[in-house]
Amino acid sequence: MAEIRVKAYAKLNLTLDILRRRSDGYHDLRMVMQSISLHDIVYIRETGNGDIEVSNSVAYLPCDRSNLAYHAAEVFFDATGIENPGIRIEIDKVIPVCAGMAGGSSDAAAVLRGLRELYAPDISIACLCRIGEQVGSDVPYCVFGGTALAEGRGEILTRLPAIPDCWVVLCKPPFPVSTPELFSCVQTKRLICHPDTKGMIQSLEKKDLPGILHRIYNVFEEVLPDKYDEVYSIKSRLMDLGALSACMTGSGPTVFGIFTERKAAETAMEVLKKEYDQTYFASMIHA
Ligand code: C5P
Fold first, then answer.
1. Are 247 and 216 a contacting pair, CB within 8 Å?
2. Does residue 29's CB lie within 6 angstroms of at least one atom of ligand 1?
């Protein structure tokens, strides 16, 4: 029976801008996204029983249709017209959940990439991204990976030059942040600052790491409710520990710091890990 193992990489937002609220309830976004080495592993095994089964290494995550990986498999077979032979999806979770790192979307994208390789190798990545759109706004980017500009709901993707090598420390405070809740805060508050997305793209084109680090910005930080203030103290800690830039990723609450010296990043990771269980070290992943 066919089987495959796929890495599901986490993502960072080098920039996140919200342009407008749309009539369908979504927001038009403009984001520079980056894959990092922190990853879950998704195993897909053919069972022959015609069903979709999901299991997780984390007990509290759902294994039914509400799991994006399950939904991705359903959508894949529907969209391609391929008959589901029966598959079992096992997810070995490492990426923190509800953390702003697209962990669930990345697992869904890994399912799509794995099923493509097993059953539909002729389908293009662009077509797989279109299938991913039906599963969630971040899924097309997670299929695409690497450094990319994501616009619209997040599904309009443009490849960008790879970020020069640098190191990341990620630290998730011990509370989840709801993405819809944070989007609703945007409606009640006018955004004053926006990232310099154009400048970020030019800096990537010039491989100008200081220029890139200087332009990292996420508008969600501006509307973050006071109850999540720990995000700001983690940002300060990362900067005190030698990060050249620190920012919240996605709808948070994970904060990342970027370092040019590997040793400094590893030391910062060790220091923060004593206070925050969910602290990680990662490198950049190129598409
Ligand atoms: O597409 P997805 O299900 O991942 O989106 C989760 C929620 O995030 C949406 O229901 C919406 O509230 C919000 N969202 C948004 N605009 C986007 C992406 C997500 O408002 N571009």
1. yes
2. yes
